[in-house]
Amino acid sequence: MDIWKWVGGETALVYQELDGTNGAARKIWRHFLGCFRGMKAAGTAFSIPYLVPIMLVVPYGSLTLQMNNSKRAKEQKKGRNKDQETKIRQPRFAFMTKSKIDHLEDGYRWRKYGQKAVKNSPYPRSYYRCTNTKCLVKKRVERSSEDPSVVITTYEGQHCHHSVVFPRGSVVHAHDSAALSVQQPTAISSPPPYFPPPLQVRESHPFCTSPHSKPIIEEGGGPDQQEQLRPPPADDGLLGDIVPAAMRNRS
DNA sequence: CGCATTTGACCTGCGC
DNA sequence: GCGCAGGTCAAATGCG
Protein backbone atom coordinates (compact mmCIF):
# COMPACT_ATOMS: atom_id res chain seq x y z
CA MET A 1 0.00 0.00 0.00
CA ASP A 2 1.28 3.38 -0.91
CA ILE A 3 0.23 6.76 0.33
CA TRP A 4 -0.67 7.80 -3.15
CA LYS A 5 -1.71 6.17 -6.36
CA TRP A 6 -1.49 7.31 -9.92
CA VAL A 7 -4.91 7.22 -11.38
CA GLY A 8 -3.63 8.06 -14.81
CA GLY A 9 -2.41 10.92 -16.85
CA GLU A 10 -1.97 13.86 -14.57
CA THR A 11 -4.16 12.64 -11.78
CA ALA A 12 -3.15 11.15 -8.47
CA LEU A 13 -5.29 9.96 -5.65
CA VAL A 14 -3.78 10.66 -2.25
CA TYR A 15 -5.34 8.69 0.53
CA GLN A 16 -3.80 9.65 3.79
CA GLU A 17 -4.65 12.15 6.43
CA LEU A 18 -2.70 15.25 5.52
CA ASP A 19 -2.57 16.88 8.90
CA GLY A 20 0.95 18.20 8.82
CA THR A 21 2.17 15.63 11.31
CA ASN A 22 2.59 13.02 8.68
CA GLY A 23 6.03 13.42 7.18
CA ALA A 24 5.28 11.52 4.02
CA ALA A 25 2.08 13.40 3.39
CA ARG A 26 3.89 16.63 4.03
CA LYS A 27 6.46 15.69 1.46
CA ILE A 28 3.79 15.00 -1.08
CA TRP A 29 2.34 18.41 -0.46
CA ARG A 30 5.71 20.05 -0.79
CA HIS A 31 6.24 18.23 -3.99
CA PHE A 32 2.94 19.35 -5.44
CA LEU A 33 3.56 22.89 -4.35
CA GLY A 34 6.97 22.81 -5.91
CA CYS A 35 5.59 21.54 -9.16
CA PHE A 36 3.14 24.38 -9.26
CA ARG A 37 5.48 27.11 -8.23
CA GLY A 38 8.90 26.12 -9.39
CA MET A 39 9.79 24.54 -6.05
CA LYS A 40 9.56 27.83 -4.23
CA ALA A 41 7.63 26.07 -1.54
CA ALA A 42 9.88 23.06 -1.42
CA GLY A 43 11.71 24.22 1.66
CA THR A 44 8.75 25.43 3.62
CA ALA A 45 7.21 23.76 6.61
CA PHE A 46 3.49 23.84 6.97
CA SER A 47 0.57 22.02 8.35
CA ILE A 48 -2.89 21.47 7.05
CA PRO A 49 -4.92 21.59 10.21
CA TYR A 50 -8.31 20.75 8.91
CA LEU A 51 -8.23 20.10 5.23
CA VAL A 52 -8.55 17.00 3.21
CA PRO A 53 -8.30 13.72 5.03
CA ILE A 54 -8.72 12.28 1.59
CA MET A 55 -7.50 14.32 -1.29
CA LEU A 56 -7.90 14.06 -4.99
CA VAL A 57 -5.23 16.11 -6.66
CA VAL A 58 -5.86 17.01 -10.24
CA PRO A 59 -3.19 19.36 -11.47
CA TYR A 60 -2.98 20.47 -15.02
CA GLY A 61 0.17 21.88 -16.48
CA SER A 62 -0.24 25.16 -18.23
CA LEU A 63 -1.97 24.29 -21.39
CA THR A 64 -2.02 26.65 -24.28
CA LEU A 65 -5.03 26.40 -26.46
CA GLN A 66 -4.75 28.22 -29.70
CA MET A 67 -8.03 29.41 -31.04
CA ASN A 68 -8.76 28.49 -34.59
CA ASN A 69 -9.44 31.14 -37.13
CA SER A 70 -13.19 30.87 -37.09
CA LYS A 71 -13.32 31.24 -33.37
CA ARG A 72 -10.92 34.14 -33.47
CA ALA A 73 -13.17 35.86 -35.98
CA LYS A 74 -16.11 35.33 -33.67
CA GLU A 75 -14.21 36.78 -30.76
CA GLN A 76 -13.19 39.84 -32.73
CA LYS A 77 -16.74 40.27 -33.88
CA LYS A 78 -17.81 40.39 -30.28
CA GLY A 79 -15.12 42.95 -29.56
CA ARG A 80 -13.14 40.81 -27.18
CA ASN A 81 -9.59 41.66 -26.32
CA LYS A 82 -6.96 40.31 -28.67
CA ASP A 83 -5.00 39.10 -25.69
CA GLN A 84 -7.64 36.46 -25.21
CA GLU A 85 -6.83 34.84 -28.50
CA THR A 86 -4.59 32.52 -26.59
CA LYS A 87 -6.32 30.86 -23.71
CA ILE A 88 -4.16 29.64 -20.89
CA ARG A 89 -5.49 26.97 -18.61
CA GLN A 90 -4.14 27.58 -15.15
CA PRO A 91 -2.81 24.84 -12.90
CA ARG A 92 -5.77 23.28 -11.20
CA PHE A 93 -6.40 20.87 -8.42
CA ALA A 94 -9.30 19.61 -6.42
CA PHE A 95 -9.80 18.25 -2.98
CA MET A 96 -12.59 16.51 -1.17
CA THR A 97 -13.71 17.61 2.25
CA LYS A 98 -16.41 16.22 4.44
CA SER A 99 -18.53 19.18 5.40
CA LYS A 100 -22.10 20.27 5.72
CA ILE A 101 -21.17 23.58 4.24
CA ASP A 102 -20.73 23.82 0.49
CA HIS A 103 -18.58 26.91 0.30
CA LEU A 104 -15.75 26.49 2.79
CA GLU A 105 -13.99 29.52 4.16
CA ASP A 106 -10.47 29.70 2.79
CA GLY A 107 -9.44 33.23 3.62
CA TYR A 108 -10.32 34.79 0.30
CA ARG A 109 -13.44 36.50 -0.90
CA TRP A 110 -15.31 34.90 -3.74
CA ARG A 111 -18.06 36.03 -6.00
CA LYS A 112 -20.42 33.45 -7.38
CA TYR A 113 -20.84 33.82 -11.12
CA GLY A 114 -22.69 30.71 -12.06
CA GLN A 115 -24.33 27.50 -11.06
CA LYS A 116 -24.91 24.49 -13.18
CA ALA A 117 -26.63 21.18 -12.78
CA VAL A 118 -24.19 18.32 -13.10
CA LYS A 119 -25.01 15.24 -15.08
CA ASN A 120 -25.56 12.12 -12.95
CA SER A 121 -25.59 14.21 -9.82
CA PRO A 122 -28.56 15.66 -7.95
CA TYR A 123 -26.37 18.45 -6.67
CA PRO A 124 -25.51 21.57 -8.66
CA ARG A 125 -21.99 22.86 -9.21
CA SER A 126 -21.27 26.44 -8.23
CA TYR A 127 -18.69 28.63 -9.91
CA TYR A 128 -16.79 31.30 -8.00
CA ARG A 129 -14.26 33.95 -8.95
CA CYS A 130 -11.94 35.80 -6.62
CA THR A 131 -13.39 39.24 -5.93
CA ASN A 132 -10.00 40.84 -6.52
CA THR A 133 -10.31 42.22 -10.04
CA LYS A 134 -6.64 41.56 -10.77
CA CYS A 135 -6.85 38.02 -9.53
CA LEU A 136 -8.01 35.42 -12.01
CA VAL A 137 -8.39 32.54 -9.61
CA LYS A 138 -11.57 30.54 -9.95
CA LYS A 139 -13.04 27.79 -7.93
CA ARG A 140 -15.76 25.25 -8.41
CA VAL A 141 -17.72 23.76 -5.57
CA GLU A 142 -19.87 20.71 -5.87
CA ARG A 143 -21.18 17.98 -3.64
CA SER A 144 -20.26 14.41 -4.36
CA SER A 145 -23.12 12.41 -5.78
CA GLU A 146 -21.72 9.27 -4.21
CA ASP A 147 -21.34 10.74 -0.77
CA PRO A 148 -23.47 13.87 -0.26
CA SER A 149 -21.52 14.70 2.86
CA VAL A 150 -18.39 15.29 0.80
CA VAL A 151 -17.74 18.63 -0.85
CA ILE A 152 -15.44 18.70 -3.85
CA THR A 153 -13.66 22.02 -4.26
CA THR A 154 -11.59 22.72 -7.34
CA TYR A 155 -9.19 25.65 -7.52
CA GLU A 156 -7.84 27.01 -10.76
CA GLY A 157 -5.05 29.55 -10.87
CA GLN A 158 -3.00 31.26 -8.23
CA HIS A 159 -3.87 34.30 -6.16
CA CYS A 160 -1.80 37.37 -6.86
CA HIS A 161 -2.66 38.91 -3.51
CA HIS A 162 -2.87 38.03 0.14
CA SER A 163 -5.75 36.53 2.02
CA VAL A 164 -8.26 39.10 3.18
CA VAL A 165 -9.85 37.24 6.03
CA PHE A 166 -6.66 36.29 7.79
CA PRO A 167 -4.01 38.98 7.49
CA ARG A 168 -0.50 37.56 7.46
CA GLY A 169 1.23 37.52 10.78
CA SER A 170 -1.92 37.19 12.78
CA VAL A 171 -1.96 34.42 15.34
CA VAL A 172 -5.19 32.58 14.91
CA HIS A 173 -5.36 28.85 15.26
CA ALA A 174 -7.97 26.69 13.70
CA HIS A 175 -8.80 24.91 16.90
CA ASP A 176 -9.40 28.07 18.93
CA SER A 177 -11.11 30.13 16.32
CA ALA A 178 -14.84 30.14 16.78
CA ALA A 179 -15.40 31.47 13.32
CA LEU A 180 -13.38 28.71 11.80
CA SER A 181 -14.79 25.97 13.88
CA VAL A 182 -18.18 26.62 12.45
CA GLN A 183 -16.99 25.74 8.99
CA GLN A 184 -14.45 23.18 9.98
CA PRO A 185 -15.14 19.96 8.19
CA THR A 186 -14.93 16.64 9.92
CA ALA A 187 -12.60 13.89 8.95
CA ILE A 188 -13.75 11.50 6.32
CA SER A 189 -11.85 8.62 7.77
CA SER A 190 -9.43 7.78 10.50
CA PRO A 191 -5.79 7.63 9.60
CA PRO A 192 -4.99 4.21 8.24
CA PRO A 193 -3.31 1.86 10.67
CA TYR A 194 -0.49 1.37 8.26
CA PHE A 195 2.04 4.14 8.09
CA PRO A 196 3.59 4.12 4.66
CA PRO A 197 7.31 3.99 4.06
CA PRO A 198 9.16 7.10 2.92
CA LEU A 199 7.92 8.28 -0.41
CA GLN A 200 9.90 7.23 -3.41
CA VAL A 201 11.59 9.97 -5.32
CA ARG A 202 10.37 10.26 -8.84
CA GLU A 203 12.85 11.97 -11.06
CA SER A 204 10.38 12.48 -13.84
CA HIS A 205 7.22 13.40 -12.04
CA PRO A 206 4.25 13.64 -14.39
CA PHE A 207 2.95 16.64 -12.49
CA CYS A 208 6.11 18.60 -12.98
CA THR A 209 5.91 20.68 -16.07
CA SER A 210 8.04 23.40 -14.59
CA PRO A 211 11.71 23.37 -15.47
CA HIS A 212 12.42 24.39 -11.90
CA SER A 213 10.87 21.29 -10.46
CA LYS A 214 12.99 18.97 -8.39
CA PRO A 215 12.35 15.62 -6.78
CA ILE A 216 10.89 15.40 -3.32
CA ILE A 217 13.30 16.13 -0.52
CA GLU A 218 13.69 13.03 1.58
CA GLU A 219 12.70 13.18 5.22
CA GLY A 220 15.51 13.49 7.72
CA GLY A 221 17.88 14.67 5.05
CA GLY A 222 21.05 16.64 5.66
CA PRO A 223 21.27 20.42 5.50
CA ASP A 224 18.01 20.64 3.65
CA GLN A 225 16.15 19.57 6.73
CA GLN A 226 16.67 22.92 8.39
CA GLU A 227 15.51 24.62 5.30
CA GLN A 228 12.39 22.49 5.22
CA LEU A 229 11.35 23.54 8.67
CA ARG A 230 11.88 27.20 8.09
CA PRO A 231 8.67 29.18 7.97
CA PRO A 232 7.63 30.28 4.53
CA PRO A 233 9.00 33.61 3.36
CA ALA A 234 6.97 36.01 1.30
CA ASP A 235 5.69 33.25 -0.92
CA ASP A 236 3.49 30.63 0.68
CA GLY A 237 3.17 28.46 -2.32
CA LEU A 238 -0.06 27.13 -3.63
CA LEU A 239 -1.17 26.29 -0.15
CA GLY A 240 -1.36 29.94 0.51
CA ASP A 241 -4.17 30.03 -1.95
CA ILE A 242 -6.18 27.67 0.18
CA VAL A 243 -5.20 27.78 3.80
CA PRO A 244 -4.88 31.09 5.57
CA ALA A 245 -1.36 31.81 6.70
CA ALA A 246 -2.34 31.92 10.33
CA MET A 247 -3.70 28.42 10.17
CA ARG A 248 -0.41 27.16 8.87
CA ASN A 249 1.56 28.60 11.75
CA ARG A 250 0.69 25.70 13.99
CA SER A 251 3.51 23.56 12.75
C1' DC B 1 -26.66 52.48 -3.34
C1' DG B 2 -23.30 49.07 -3.89
C1' DC B 3 -22.29 44.49 -3.93
C1' DA B 4 -23.46 39.57 -4.10
C1' DT B 5 -26.46 36.02 -5.79
C1' DT B 6 -29.66 33.91 -8.97
C1' DT B 7 -30.77 32.05 -13.26
C1' DG B 8 -31.76 31.59 -18.12
C1' DA B 9 -29.30 32.21 -22.30
C1' DC B 10 -25.36 31.70 -24.75
C1' DC B 11 -20.74 29.87 -25.83
C1' DT B 12 -17.36 26.15 -26.31
C1' DG B 13 -15.29 21.64 -26.50
C1' DC B 14 -15.81 17.01 -27.43
C1' DG B 15 -17.63 12.57 -28.78
C1' DC B 16 -20.32 10.23 -32.09
C1' DG C 1 -22.52 18.34 -38.55
C1' DC C 2 -25.09 17.53 -34.51
C1' DG C 3 -26.15 17.03 -29.79
C1' DC C 4 -24.75 17.06 -25.16
C1' DA C 5 -22.54 18.73 -21.09
C1' DG C 6 -19.64 21.98 -18.94
C1' DG C 7 -18.48 26.78 -18.42
C1' DT C 8 -19.49 31.79 -18.64
C1' DC C 9 -22.18 35.96 -19.25
C1' DA C 10 -25.23 39.38 -17.86
C1' DA C 11 -29.70 41.18 -16.53
C1' DA C 12 -32.70 40.82 -12.75
C1' DT C 13 -33.16 40.46 -8.04
C1' DG C 14 -32.03 40.46 -3.13
C1' DC C 15 -29.82 42.20 0.85
C1' DG C 16 -27.33 45.03 4.17
Automatic annotation (TrEMBL):
Localization per Swiss-Prot or TrEMBL: Nucleus
Domain of life assignment: Eukaryota
InterPro entries: WRKY_dom, WRKY_dom_sf, WRKY_plant
Gene3D superfamilies cross-referenced by the UniProt entry: WRKY domain
Record field: transmembrane: 48-68
Record's keyword terms, sorted: DNA-binding, Membrane, Nucleus, Transcription, Transcription regulation, Transmembrane, Transmembrane helix
Biased composition (Basic and acidic residues): 72-88
Sample GO molecular function, one term: sequence-specific DNA binding
GO cellular component: nucleus
Chain intervals with Pro residues compositional bias: 190-199
WRKY domain ranges (all copies): 99-164
Region (Disordered): 69-88, 182-251
Keyword Cell inner membrane: no
Keyword Secreted part of the UniProt annotation: no
Pfam families, A to Z: WRKY (PF03106)
Main location: nucleus
Record's protein name: WRKY domain-containing protein
Native organism taxonomy: Eukaryota, Viridiplantae, Streptophyta, Embryophyta, Tracheophyta
